[in-house]
Specification:
- 2% of the residues lie in helices and 44% in strands.
- It is mostly beta strands and 245 residues long.
- It folds into two domains: 129 residues, Sandwich (Tumour Suppressor Smad4); 95 residues, Tumour Suppressor Smad4 (Sandwich), CATH 2.60.200.20.
- The protein has a seven-stranded antiparallel beta sheet, with no helix packed on it. The protein has a six-stranded antiparallel beta sheet with strand order 14-13-23-22-19-20, with no helix packed on it.
- β13 and β14 form a beta hairpin.
- The longest helix has 6 residues.
- It is globular.
Length: 245
Amino acid sequence: MAKLHHSQAGLLLIRNQSQIMLPLDREILTLGRNQADILLDDPRASGLHAEIAWVSGKHRIRDLESTNGLFINQKKLKEAWLTDQDVIEIGSTTFCYFQDRRDFHGDSEELTQGRKLSEAEKQEFQDVSRVTEWSTTSKKLPSYRIELELIDGEKPTQSFSFQKMQISIGRSGCDISLPDVDLSRKHCVIEVLSRSSIFLKDMNSTNGTFLNGERVNVSRLQAGDLIGLGGSVLKFSIHAPNETE
């Protein structure tokens, strides 16, 4: 396996229906609301909130004594070594870490070249078309189908099927609207980045969003996961377009 360089890594900024890939093209980068290398338009982020450094062939992230803390995969940490597709939360901002940002591609994303590469970079990267400074995903719909089953006990009572990049769930005005008084109006969303990167995100609901019994803010979904919200439970699965269960 070829040794990775720090400049191949990236942070995927997860936002409603759009994603931005930020390259980690320096050995040390800071994140925060001001005075940082990566500026966050987030009132819950501190001025200098966190630092990502390339140390001994790996990326390490550490909290810079922020007010609201640094969360990695739902755990509040002062410092951590990053592994591929870790979920990073800074204030209300969510990132997904990619060791090699060229891995973020597939039938729902097409990265576009955002800057002219140096000759050294062209030699370093085999697929130049996927190397970007600021890259946004295309609006192309996923070729796979997201299935959500409303569960009563162990028996499914209703099924919902989608081929879209974002699915909203709540009490009213959502893709899935459930007559559940314990739900917020827009309770949570499912963000579809690629077939292997699908995230459940709570939308500051009153009673919280639960994944397999554990309360979460943002978490990656896998087939068979149970999403609990209010008094309702949805079972998540993913299928090819014409595939039946």
